[in-house]
Predict the 3D structure of the following.
Amino acid sequence: MTAASLSTVNLDSRFAQELGELSVPWRAEDVAEPRLLVLNEPLAAELGLDPGWLRSAEGVRLLVGNLVPEGAAPVAQAYAGHQFGFYAPRLGDGRALLLGELVDPEGSLRDVHLKGSGRTPFARGGDGLAAVGPMLREYVVSEAMHALGIPTTRSLAVVATGRQVLRETPLPGAVLTRVASSHLRVGTFQYARATGDDGLLRRLADHAIHRHHPHAARAENPYLALFDAVVTVQARLVAQWMLVGFVHGVMNTDNTTVSGETIDYGPCAFLDAFDPAAVYSSIDQGGRYAYRNQPVVAEWNLARFAEALLPLVHEDQDRAVQLVQTSLQAFAGRYSAAWTTGLRAKLGLGGSAGTAPGDDDVQPLIDDLFPLLVADRVDHTNFFRCLGAAARGDTGPVRDLFRDPAGFDDWAGRWRALDPDADAMDRVNPVYIPRNHLVEEALEAATEGDLGPLAGLLDAVTEPYAERPGLERYAEPAPQDFGPYQTFCGT
């Protein structure tokens, strides 16, 4: 179906209808003069929407929530969450709205969701608004993550509101329209559990099973199977983050999805120089969500999910705890397996069954590699990409990344003896990522009204694996005088 008018946009309201206790009916604030800044035309087509219509006055009003199809029921979703380890019983969509769910041409249900659409009952004193810069950051980074093959929410559009948003200084306002397989979070289950209504918790779990993990419905213990499925998808997701050097920055339980998608690109960044202690969030003073801590934090968040599910797992709480603990203990192994498989591929040592080098050969290489990268502050992305050239015999580019290449030379000799597959490496090691200095350059220009740098950056990062003439600056590391780098939540 191609949408040519508002009447042909069909938005369901399943979450609102099935889980009314977990949402508040609400409407977006009026935007007097909405102006489309960027539209994700490929995603629009994927959703069965007509990009041309979305660019029309009527379409843009849909994108900010001021015009919704008949039968749609926009809601602000309720959830709780542990934020930096401290429990907040009532968070929710303080500046966001779920417009509804859309069935795409493949038959998949997709949330259409707004960010920056105004205050809701969950705003907690905030203004409910968003600025152009942070909304464009989410657009760029989420679309880059999608191009890298990492499960993520997607960005459909950013629309300028013409309204000033007061932060440290007045900034131009904007609304982000994003798409997800759902916005169900660990925090959603924490909120439902805190109500004391096990019937509500069960309906939420059934909703999540039906939407994301339908195989769990056939298990002997469906709710334990749900938990186990989320453990698996989160282990794989965080391993993928680590492999590309992505630092989320706010791994609170309300940002841990049941679907296994990355959500919320506020304080986030990609590694420049490899640094396990890298922290890019201005509010993460203790380094809780540093790059190296992400797997541990994910496991901690899943423990909170387990606590929320206990009444459904078994009527005897002690037995329920035993069951979820056994499942949670599988996280470390699943994460390690995903990480090791991914790193083998990045090193060109994946191969097919029976042909790949054995663990006894590969694991010492892995163990010895990262201290070398840390010691010389080697650029994470460029190291792995240039390593592909080294697999073809040209060691110069990767060797030049090291201040003292002697240690690398020894490592590289052992690595090349295992006959790495250079072509396979190029398929998994990107040339282009949203480099922090380029993101800031694009956002600053866009805030001043120039969208040219944003368009150039998007062109590069949405085709990250194909090296293209003319895009050399998008593969260059940050200038020496750039940093220390911080990102902000935008509220």
Remarks:
- The CA atoms of residues 248 and 268 lie 5 Å apart.
- The chain is about 40% helix and 10% strand.
- The longest strand covers residues 154-166.
